[in-house]
What does this fold into?
Amino acid sequence: MLEARLSELRESALARIAAASSPEDLEVVRVDVLGRKGALAQISKEMGKVAPEQRAAIGKLLNSVKQEVEAALETKDRQFAEDALRTRLDAEWMDLTLPAPGLRPGSLHPITQIQAEIEDLFVSMGFTVLDGPEVESEYYNFDALNIPADHPARDMQDTFWLTDGNLLRTHTSPVQVRGMERLGPPLRMIAPGRAFRNENVDASHEHTFYQLEGMMIDREVSVAHLIYFMKTLLTAIFKREVTVRLRPGYFPFVEPGFELDIQCLICGGPGCPVCKQSGWVELLPCGLVNPNVLRMSGIDPEQWNGFAFGLGLTRLVMMRYGIDDIRHLQGGDLRFLEQF
It folds into this structure.
């Protein structure tokens, strides 16, 4: 009885193995025949009922069937592995005799490109490019710029304060103070860099952005000098005449202070999200350096004066390239960055 069942099981298992079309089919056969609850396991449990003189022969036959099925499973499994490798090699085949496609050149970020252009422009006019720390002290970020602790101007800038009492600089103006202290007058300098403010992010505002500060300290500097350098800057960046307006503005570190606005180059004036529907974009807060700022940096305001400006570098890039959402600039999307 058991001999017949074992012979039938062997024929059936070998046939199923030969007909298996995938590793999954093969695993089903293995479980059905060799599994803990498989056919061979069930037959093994019945060995106790076999007459003693027949057990050796039945046991030998059972082991033979098991070994034959295992060998067939291994052979079929190896065949599936070889077929899979062959298919993969065919799909991934390449002609190694073909010439290499060459390097894929990258590109500079648009902010980096514009910053480099502005640096080259101002260096050609005798300005020095300075840098300073992004983690600043309260003194350099506020006090030395004529913004004491109780000054309402501090409310204009939502500051990221650190646990050690320092802060992430809210503008690049602290570099002006450090430049005056280190170099003294006469002085022509610009300071490009990153600034931070705790603002809600939208199409025209980011908590992390880029500015470029500029300053000229000399004798008998006037508003006319300021306007000349600002017009030279904008003409060089936009490669064309742009419509600007100069209106009074309040900044503690300059007196008098001005807001130099540029007509929105995205919408041309009617209004859009970038210009807050006004048709104008605040681009260049500027003015003559407040005598208190000069005095705190060790410069005699009776002998020296100058102008200072703060350029929104990120917004300038948006105007230059017609970018309608500031969030694209730091989004890390290569599809956007590859355009530049």
